[in-house]
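In practice, a research group might receive sequence data for several interacting partners and want a quick structural hypothesis before committing to experiments. The following worked case mirrors that situation: the sequences arrive first, and a predicted assembly follows.
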Amino acid sequence: MNVDLVDWMGSDESIVQAARVSSGTTGSWAANKGLINMLARDRHGSPFEAVILQFKVDVPLFVAREWFRHRIGSFNEVSGRYKVLEPVFYVPNGGRPLKQIGKPGAYTFEHGTQTQVDIVEFAHKAGAVEAWHLYQEMLDAGIAKEVARNVLPLSLYTSFYWTVNLRSAMNFLSLRWAHKDAKVPTFPLYEIEQAAVKVESYASQIAPEAMKSFNTNGRIAP
Amino acid sequence: MNVDLVDWMGSDESIVQAARVSSGTTGSWAANKGLINMLARDRHGSPFEAVILQFKVDVPLFVAREWFRHRIGSFNEVSGRYKVLEPVFYVPNGGRPLKQIGKPGAYTFEHGTQTQVDIVEFAHKAGAVEAWHLYQEMLDAGIAKEVARNVLPLSLYTSFYWTVNLRSAMNFLSLRWAHKDAKVPTFPLYEIEQAAVKVESYASQIAPEAMKSFNTNGRIAP
Amino acid sequence: MNVDLVDWMGSDESIVQAARVSSGTTGSWAANKGLINMLARDRHGSPFEAVILQFKVDVPLFVAREWFRHRIGSFNEVSGRYKVLEPVFYVPNGGRPLKQIGKPGAYTFEHGTQTQVDIVEFAHKAGAVEAWHLYQEMLDAGIAKEVARNVLPLSLYTSFYWTVNLRSAMNFLSLRWAHKDAKVPTFPLYEIEQAAVKVESYASQIAPEAMKSFNTNGRIAP
Amino acid sequence: MNVDLVDWMGSDESIVQAARVSSGTTGSWAANKGLINMLARDRHGSPFEAVILQFKVDVPLFVAREWFRHRIGSFNEVSGRYKVLEPVFYVPNGGRPLKQIGKPGAYTFEHGTQTQVDIVEFAHKAGAVEAWHLYQEMLDAGIAKEVARNVLPLSLYTSFYWTVNLRSAMNFLSLRWAHKDAKVPTFPLYEIEQAAVKVESYASQIAPEAMKSFNTNGRIAP
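A structural hypothesis for the assembly, expressed as tokens:
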């Protein structure tokens, strides 16, 4: 899975500028840091929309499906209607917990046994090979790409651009990373959490004080 | 594919009521019909947001993926993390054009030969059977549902609730149905167009004058 | 200020129905109440979007300006371009605290002295009378409504329809009511808080368990 | 009225990049120009969301009220709760048509007589002076800013930051400028149209081909 920052607009200073228009005040950098923290704490969210991040993301379809549920932001994705897709599939690695224990809303996860790891690896690989074979067979027979792709599995990689403001990115991060500083519990999918860590790393480079205030105040999107 | 209307709020009268608050006027039913037409014609879109439709939709994943790109509206979907999925898969029927001719943005479609129909049917069925077998195998080995489902194909059916206002539904319909009355050309996926026809049928029952005005004015969402 | 519920769709049951599609389960009413609470606690927000409320609201312009900042929802408002406006103006009553103490983000308010109450009442009334006189004078001289209305003050009443889902309404309530159960402090304008109390009263009639869970879990919109 | 571009992200190239991820193709600059035109023509709107514009806007309150109805975008505005406002008021100049002829939805405008121009100027100035006097009087008596500002008129200037993607900006422009190339008629307020002209001028500098395609294709937001 890749998450690359391809463009961005703004910084901590943009947040301060957007916030200070309301009061018409100016301040030292120390005061500005305090202001950013106050904005996050008291849920004055709109100044965080003054920062924009644009990512190129490569993840399996089952991760993309969760990602696209976030409606405040823009997506442009590889189309299986327009393009012959590429045979890149996700196979869980050793770090992926395989056993799900408990009930919906209160799952815990444990690592699998070696047998389970082997079964998962085999199933993902065998499924991908078989599906790719059927996809190719249909394309070779002159079938439309948009029909042939139906047989491809959710483990297939897709690529998309995601343009999102920092406030919406914070909301994504609050739900997709079970972070130790989070005031409210969340139960993200293992794979989207791995991607969220990368999103947060870039966000913290572009607007470090804003992201610090997000963590300090319990990771609730302001 | 099923599209069922499960709840709704409002009617043509709600649109008139929302629109007339701006001018403080009242009118006969004939005048109200003219008003609705004027609203659609001159792109006064917000009154059409006073009508809400709620659908239960059963479609393959590749159709749901397009549907969920529509951000003005609400979705609740079957979760492969929480639920053992059911073995219901899409197999294109005879009506589905199989040959894609031309370039992206200017495709035309033609019906397949009998051999092509057979290949498509075989590939969809064989792919589904194999994937389902691997899914079951992983579940039997105690693998988490959210891992096992990765091998399932895009032809798998999913179910979701969709709550949408009429204006956003019109936008969906303008893009997902290549209708003869459309002023602007559109190239929807065959399967989502079939579902869109059902959406429009319900919308036309709930707000007939509004949907008439949508058609009369070139099917551009106001 | 009036806030009237003019239409609605759904109930606590709609929230349960939308949520249970994900797991494919059913449950007793006791279980459903627990489910709603879990949804609010763990910020599974989308099922709360299955309930829609439609209000008719009459408030001064300075309140409407705050209200219209809430972007998830639909508005239709009286237009000063299309309609000769009516001379209804807000004058703060005795309950309105008049003294603002402290700094932005940390204000406290106190009641005014009798002199202050008198000054405020006089200024609001004198300003309204003078502005209304100028408005009439321009209309009498054949000036367009949309030009004449420029002289009217922010204390002028306006009317609008607001169609909003319950999740977005919860967000409004979390910011516009400094409620004792709120986990995060908020500093709403006195007048919009009075209106928010009425919004919450209706929401609690339509979806009582959902609103109870909102309060129990610290009034953070899920 | 001022409209200044304070920051931006992207260009025509960003639109091409976002669009081409779907087909996985590359192209010459000539081909890219054709692609942008095709995107606008066939309403492939999402690539236009890859460009972000951030404006600082100074307009009267009655213009800001229309502007804030555009929900896809971000606003941060001067707050009359936090700041003592400044006495800057709008007075229509000679170019402002003063006579409104016809019915809602079909108005035409004509220039006023000299008497009408004088009446409008007098009313705007007298109203502003009187309102400002009452505002000051309340502030001097120790009344909270958020109460005192109620008496100020809609002609008062406000300032805000507006962060908006190019697609949403196109929608704004399609509704707020009665442009000769528009396929669908629109009846914007004179003052917001003047501001829209400035918005478009900046947009055309940042993404000239995109804005050309917007005009060529009838100024319907894609």
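Before designing any experiment, note the following. Chain B touches chain D through 18 residues (CB under 8 Å). Chain B has two domains: 2-77+157-216, 99-151.
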